[in-house]
Hints:
The chain is about 10% helix and about 20% strand. The chain is mainly beta. Among the domains are: about 85-120, no CATH class; about 120-160, no CATH class. This is EsV-1-7. It holds the Pfam family EsV_1_7_cys.
Amino acid sequence: MRGSKAKVCLGGTPGAPCSKQPAFGFNGQKAEYCSRHKIQGMVNLRNRRCEQPGCCKEPYFGHEGHKARFCSCHKAPSMVDVRHRRCEHEACTKQPNYALEGGRARFCAVHRLPGMVDVKHRRCHIAQCGKYPYYRMRGQKLRACDTHKLDGMERVSPRTSAPSAPAANGISAPSPRGLSDVPSEGSRRSTDSIASLVFGFGMAGGDAVAAASSGGGEADAAAAAALGDSVDRTSAVIYTYKKRRVEYRGHTMQVLEMLV
Length: 260
């Protein structure tokens, strides 16, 4: 609590002060705010930083068996994420998102086992729906997919689902990564065009089989149509394409979030 020897974040309001320990502040100054109440331009002064001169990001990447030294922008090609848990499949370095319902994430989208679901990302509020939500009431978290959205809900990006937290001086904290709420029409067209070229997802012994092309024509479309009828349409594969995180299930592609 305030007034004690333990330093606390200066954010919050007089009636609801923040009790978290501060880690963020401006370069050359003391840490005064937590991650929720930090002001734009503040950096993490408590944790180590990327070893690249001038970079203020936290390091997550290093050589296998060694400590993290660089951020994702400045890591060497041979470096891997040594701070987060990884997929339990041998030699896989991806982060796990999938597990049996109610369990802790164990596998990535490629190596997940039959019956596993994404346990790290929010789903539609309708039970048994399973789709990712894009709609919310203004100022609230994401709740509904396109099928189950309610009157008055607005479509937003998953990364802006939480309202920005006001700082102690009344300045709102910036939105995560500065993302816009809705992808542009050009982005949607680009996503739609690749959707017709990505095909053939299924599950066999826990391994997903995928085939994709960055460009093509009638031959690709014919191959996709022929292969699409023989795959497991209930299985889904999540992958990244052109700064978009997308899910492909059967013949349907859904953009989960924009990556910037």
